[in-house]
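In the current project phase, work has continued on tokenised descriptions of protein folds. One protein thus recorded appears below exactly as we store it.

——
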Amino acid sequence: MSKSNHTSEITDFFKELDEKIKPDSKSRQAEKKKYAEINEKRDNPDYEQKKSKLWEEF
């Protein structure tokens, strides 16, 4: 079974939208960083969270 090269209208719309908006805006960079950290925590059981000074004494 071979895959066709057909893309849906919504996929084409999102591709066009992605080209029009700034792909490296600050908000997109923040989202990429957030999800990279979430994925790292999920995929790496030995991940050490950054410790806040607020909770050091507890």
Summary: The longest helix spans residues 26-43. The chain is about 50% helix and 0% strand. The mean pLDDT is 80. The helical segments are 9-20, 26-43.
